């Protein structure tokens, strides 16, 4: 079968490295272009030794003509880069998957408020499809530009979507209490991510407002058919990978089979695993895998639903989900290159 020519812009961060790892075993993907201005001339497996024997690509300075010769280009870049480059690639017939936030928020004013950048590609923003396959699969199949979701928004939306779609819970009192490993902050050197700053500690951050809040609100409002109100508090925990979202909602009416609701909603979904009644998912159970494990519980008052949702922030929360969308965009089996089990221990 003919290979699909791939470009990756910004392959030096954690999401870029994860893309390289996943695409290295993808039977239809052929990496043609891997860019980094800072690391130009260096082999990818020199920067990421885990790729030795699997990826012989060499970083290069971005060249618009070489990128335009690709069938698909992934942006694993800081916010603000994709909006500058993606429109020209799309016009040249390249399908674009952006792992930054440039095309996630449909309201350009909201994007500017939260990311402190004026959006320079409003037409592309209007065209972009939000890349959460379990909610937008058919639109992703037809898309030229996919905005890959953030990690927290993925865990929260998958966890609450069945309840909101069915109109079963109060939409104004939702709570998302979420924890993430340190790789969620990126590979750039920061004091707050140093081992001695993180280990044996646990803290909340972004309580007055986190960048993922408007994305979560936008997605959940689409599920509910009305604007939702949600309190979202992220926390940093001393592990490298993983997100655990504990989600709270109040039922509008009694629900006899909570797990059955989730099992029916996600029946046939390869990357959402609804656990047996009473189970509590662990982040290590999804480490390295493109899967969200969910366990809904009914609180002792019979009115509060507590949903536990775990993902690997670098896989289902970023690069794995991007490859899942890539498969849909090119008419491939959705699980292609993504069916490996999680790492254990």
TrEMBL record:
Its EC number is 1.2.1.38. CDD domains: AGPR_1_C, AGPR_1_N. SUPFAM superfamilies: Glyceraldehyde-3-phosphate dehydrogenase-like, C-terminal domain, NAD(P)-binding Rossmann-fold domains. It is an enzyme of class 1 (oxidoreductase). One of its GO terms (biological process) is L-arginine biosynthetic process. GO terms for molecular function: N-acetyl-gamma-glutamyl-phosphate reductase activity; NAD binding; NADP+ binding. SMART domains: Semialdhyde_dh. InterPro entries: AGPR, AGPR_AS, AGPR_dimerisation_dom, AGPR_type-1, NAD(P)-bd_dom_sf, Semialdehyde_DH_NAD-bd. Residues 5-143 form the Semialdehyde dehydrogenase NAD-binding domain. It catalyses: N-acetyl-L-glutamate 5-semialdehyde + phosphate + NADP(+) = N-acetyl-L-glutamyl 5-phosphate + NADPH + H(+). It is found in: Cytoplasm. PANTHER family: N-ACETYL-GAMMA-GLUTAMYL-PHOSPHATE REDUCTASE, CHLOROPLASTIC-RELATED, N-ACETYL-GAMMA-GLUTAMYL-PHOSPHATE REDUCTASE, CHLOROPLASTIC-RELATED-RELATED. Catalyzes the NADPH-dependent reduction of N-acetyl-5-glutamyl phosphate to yield N-acetyl-L-glutamate 5-semialdehyde. This is N-acetyl-gamma-glutamyl-phosphate reductase. It comes from Stagnimonas aquatica. The gene is argC.
